[in-house]
Amino acid sequence: MESQLSRPADRRRYPTEMMRIPLQFSLGGLLLFTGAIAVTVATLLAWPKWGAVIGPFLLITALLLLLASCFFRRRRAGSMVFRVSSSMLVATSLLYLSFGPAAWAHARYLSPKCALPASSWTKSNEISADAFDYIYQPIATNAIFAPEPIRSCAMSYIAWWMPNGTRFCDWGDGIGWHKNPITYTVIHY
């Protein structure tokens, strides 16, 4: 007599009792993964200098690949391109949208080094300020030089995130905020 667990319908109910399939690696998959890691590292290293170009390029590329992959979703490669491009679009969009909360945290918790006594400026403050500049200066550059409808939307979004008692400053060719007695400039051209 056959065991009850040997029927196919019962195997779906008890996945732990099924035989495990070992992972299989292919040379093509390994080369693709290594190339993706290399491109990611190169993008992160080039971000401070070329981020104002890389960011919009990633958004446009992800959007175009997402639209193109909609026509080929039934194929395996089309499905994979859809997942990768939608993930890239979401990640890049979240990076741009995180500028508002990061500006809020920077304005609320970090004062410029010149406004504090030397004893109260710590290494963690310096690291936080450097990280903010490293990540968000290219995004601020994109917000400054964007076409007018996008620029006004970006400036309103950043201004909305400013904490109470802080005034957002849009100088046309730079942005920052003023919190008595300090004016902090994110970027100015």
Summarize it.
The chain contains 6 helices and 3 strands; from the N terminus they run H-H-H-H-H-H-E-E-E. The chain is mostly helical.
Key attributes of the depicted protein:
elongated, mainly alpha, 189 residues, 62% helix, 3-stranded antiparallel beta sheet, 6 helices
Q: Secondary-structure map with pairings?
A:
Layout: H1 8-13, H2 27-69, H3 76-97, H4 99-109, H5 123-145, H6 148-160, E1 167-170, E2 174-179, E3 182-188
Antiparallel strand pairs: 1-2, 2-3
Helix pairs in contact: 2-3, 2-5, 4-5, 4-6, 5-6
* Elements, N to C (H/E): HHHHHHEEE
Q: Would you count the extended β strands for me?
A: 3
Portion in strands = 5-15%
Helix content: 55-70%
**Number of structural units classed as domains:** 2
Which structural class should the secondary elements be placed in?
mainly alpha
> Which regions are unreliable across 5 or more consecutive residues at pLDDT < 50?
none
Largest β-sheet summary: 3 strands, antiparallel
Rg, Å, rounded: 24 Å
Write out the strand line-up for the largest beta sheet, numbering strands in chain order: 1-2-3
Overall 3D geometry?
A: elongated
| First-last Cα distance | 82 Å
Average pLDDT metric: 82
Report the total helices: 6
Report on the structure:
The protein has two domains: 31-97; 99-189, no CATH class. With 189 residues, the chain is mainly alpha-helical. 62% of the residues lie in helices and 9% in strands. It has a three-stranded antiparallel β-sheet with strand order 1-2-3, with helices on one face. It is elongated. It is built from six helices and three strands. α2 packs across α5 (123-145) and α5 packs antiparallel against α6 (148-160). The chain has helices at residues 8-13, 27-69, 76-97, 99-109, 123-145, 148-160, and strands spanning 167-170, 174-179, 182-188.
